[in-house]
Amino acid sequence: MIVMKSFLLCVLFLISTDAFGQHDGTKYPDFFGLTLAEVVDHEGWRVIEKATGYLSSGQVEATVVVLQSGSHEFVSCSESAELLQNEERIILVLISQEGEPRVTIQNNEFIVRPNEGGMMCYIEPKLSIENNQLNILYQYTRSNRQYTFEYSNGEMILVSAKSVGVSGGRFYSSFYDFRRKVIESEEGSIGSDSSTQETIPIEFDGFKTLSEFGEMNEWEVAEYKLL
Question: Whole-prediction pTM value?
Answer without folding.
Answer: 0.86
